[in-house]
Amino acid sequence: MEYYCLLVKTGEEEKFKGAALEKLSLTDFTVDFYFFQRSLKTNQGKVFENPLFPGYIFFSTEQLVPELMMILKKVKGFIRFLIDNTNPIKIVGRQLEELVLCCAS
Questions:
Q1: Cβ atoms 54, 12 nearer than 8 A
Q2: What is the pLDDT, as a whole number, of residue 1?
Q3: CA angle 80, 81, 85 (to 5 degrees)
């Protein structure tokens, strides 16, 4: 599996994930999306979820091919692949180890 990161509109991570999975369901691509949230508690005792990395969605796929990139670019809320749309960078090394640990839990 290859892991990548993309930037979407802040606060619309869940919407993007749902829309992308809907579009991808019509294809043969296998993609898993991950975005991380943390629970925060206010002074009044209310608990709410807040994104750990606002606007960032990580995803895994067998291989990032141009056809898959075009599908993701057309999903509402998409901003760009990291580092840029013409040269997305695979997450590797120590960062990949940390990401896989987070995805597993």
A1: no
A2: 85
A3: 80
CA 51, 62, 80, 20 torsion-angle sign: negative
Distance CA 1, CA 13 (A): 22
Which tokens go with 7? Answer: 């930037």
Q: Which tokens in the block code for residue 30?
A: 């296998």
Give backbone dihedrals phi and psi of 30, rounded to 5 degrees, phi first. -110, 115
Instruction: Count other Cβ atoms within 10 Å, centred on residue 103.
Output: 13
- Which residues, at least 6 apart from 31, have a Cβ–Cβ distance to it below 8 Å? 20, 21, 24, 59, 60, 61, 68
Helix (H, G, I), strand (E, B) or coil at 26: coil
Give mean pLDDT, residues 80-94.
85
Q: What's the one-letter identity of residue 34?
A: Y
Class of residue 12 by CB neighbours under 10 A (exposed 0-12, middle 13-18, buried 19+): middle
Average pLDDT over residues 50-79: 90
Q: In sequence order, what are the residues at sequence separation of 6 or more whose Cβ sits closer than 8 angstroms to the Cβ of residue 20?
A: 31, 33, 71, 72, 75
